[in-house]
């Protein structure tokens, strides 16, 4: 039988002293003489950047990887229907600092057993220093742009297509087939629509046309709700924000996940106030109707969802509370 030493205050302090002495001696092993004699060696600078923004979401045999393009801000005036007192109250409840509204820019890579599908490309260099991180984060995920088979664009706003082209105007994903809804292409290539747009918004039409033209030889138009992109990946028509705005549903086995595009732009406001839109909505009334229907369905069915402007990485569930909603972010998944 092993003897157990009787403990006393003096004995405990004696043993503790030996332990501390041993730790102190061990701590100096391997340090340069200057460091032990003159104090600790100089420390590296305090980090001022996050590690790469990548997060993987398993869906049966497929994997969705959230890719952060970065962030920006919106003035409250960009949120239609919002009042300053109510917006400030919702901001305080969500611990969002007062001032301009934060907005995330996300893209999603779907990897099925046979294809790689990139859903949207972020804003490129057009949205300020906070954005344009797609390529860096794709590299961090081990993804070569040349390996992308399909480029599926939810809609042709600049914060979704800014990464489609290189600085020289060439396709950034040279082997990818472009998929975009027929109604979306028709809207952005309509000269009458461009003429009627405010002067400071016509550049958005030009950017959309440049992106479409660069991929013109390998473009497939999407035309119906539920259309299959590849096995297990289908689109969901979500009109209003733009005429051909779509979501992307990924299903494999018993699992499914919906990437809903721009159903929500400012999460801490629009879940609580789904009737609030954004000035970028082409048809504001239809966008509100689509958002409410989508939130209803997501809450009722317990859908796993992600979105381009949800707080990165995006996955979670919609919870209904009376006439309002809330978002429950998914727990971090360590194993996929």
Automatic annotation (TrEMBL):
<dbReference type="InterPro" id="IPR006311">
    <property type="entry name" value="TAT_signal"/>
</dbReference>
<comment type="similarity">
    <text>Belongs to the metallo-beta-lactamase superfamily.</text>
</comment>
<protein>
    <submittedName>
        <fullName>MBL fold metallo-hydrolase</fullName>
    </submittedName>
</protein>
<feature type="signal peptide">
    <location>
        <begin position="1"/>
        <end position="26"/>
    </location>
</feature>
<keyword id="KW-0862">Zinc</keyword>
<dbReference type="InterPro" id="IPR051013">
    <property type="entry name" value="MBL_superfamily_lactonases"/>
</dbReference>
<dbReference type="InterPro" id="IPR001279">
    <property type="entry name" value="Metallo-B-lactamas"/>
</dbReference>
<keyword id="KW-0479">Metal-binding</keyword>
<dbReference type="InterPro" id="IPR036866">
    <property type="entry name" value="RibonucZ/Hydroxyglut_hydro"/>
</dbReference>
<dbReference type="GO" id="GO:0046872">
    <property type="term" value="F:metal ion binding"/>
</dbReference>
<keyword id="KW-0378">Hydrolase</keyword>
<keyword id="KW-0732">Signal</keyword>
<feature type="domain" description="Metallo-beta-lactamase">
    <location>
        <begin position="104"/>
        <end position="309"/>
    </location>
</feature>
<dbReference type="Pfam" id="PF00753">
    <property type="entry name" value="Lactamase_B"/>
</dbReference>
<dbReference type="GO" id="GO:0016787">
    <property type="term" value="F:hydrolase activity"/>
</dbReference>
């Amino acid at each position: 039988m092993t003897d157990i030493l009787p403990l006393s205050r003096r004995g405990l302090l004696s043993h503790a002293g030996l332990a501390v002495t041993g730790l102190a001696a061990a701590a100096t092993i391997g340090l340069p003489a200057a460091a032990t004699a003159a104090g600790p060696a100089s420390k590296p600078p305090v980090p001022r950047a996050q590690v790469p923004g990548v997060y993987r979401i398993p869906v049966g045999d497929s994997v969705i990887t959230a890719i952060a393009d970065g962030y920006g801000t919106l003035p409250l005036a960009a949120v239609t229907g919002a009042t300053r007192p109510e917006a400030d109250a919702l901001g305080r409840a969500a611990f969002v600092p007062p001032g301009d509204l934060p907005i995330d820019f996300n893209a999603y890579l779907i990897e099925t057993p046979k294809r790689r599908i990139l859903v949207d490309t972020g804003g490129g260099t057009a949205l300020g220093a906070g954005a344009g991180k797609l390529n860096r984060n794709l590299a961090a995920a081990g993804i070569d742009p040349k390996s992308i088979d399909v480029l599926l664009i939810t809609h042709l706003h600049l914060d979704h297509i800014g990464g489609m082209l290189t600085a020289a105007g060439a396709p950034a994903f040279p082997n990818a087939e472009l998929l975009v809804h027929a109604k979306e292409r028709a809207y952005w290539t309509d000269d009458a629509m461009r003429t009627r747009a405010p002067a400071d918004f016509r550049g958005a039409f030009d950017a959309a046309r440049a992106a479409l033209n660069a991929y013109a030889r390998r473009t497939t138009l999407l035309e119906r709700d539920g259309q299959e992109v590849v096995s297990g990946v289908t689109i969901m028509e979500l009109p209003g924000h733009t005429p051909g705005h779509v979501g992307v549903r990924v299903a494999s086995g018993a699992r499914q996940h919906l990437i809903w595009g721009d159903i929500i732009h400012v999460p801490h406001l629009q879940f609580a106030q789904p009737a609030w839109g954004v000035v970028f909505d082409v048809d504001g009334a239809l966008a509100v109707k689509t958002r409410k229907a989508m939130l209803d369905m997501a809450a009722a069915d317990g859908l796993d969802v992600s979105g381009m402007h949800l707080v990165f990485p995006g996955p979670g569930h919609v919870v209904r509370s009376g006439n309002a909603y809330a978002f429950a972010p998914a727990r971090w998944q360590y194993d996929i």
